[in-house]
Amino acid sequence: MKNIAEFVKTRRKEVGMTQEEFAERIGVALTVIRKIEQGKTNLNMDKVNQVLSMFGHELAAARSVELPK
Description:
Elements: H1 4-14, H2 19-26, H3 30-37, H4 45-52
Helix pairs in contact: 2-3
């Protein structure tokens, strides 16, 4: 699958929305959309999931697994 930045940008354009329209529709700040589409890594997971939920997707935290000794 494409990385999140490419995925969000591509899907947003497919629905014909600007970053500003998309942010307003979802209820997040424009800067959230910009940061996601720029591939920034210091994002709030709840905000990213709010954006991804528009396309039926969600991120989940990785589970830590204890490795055998």
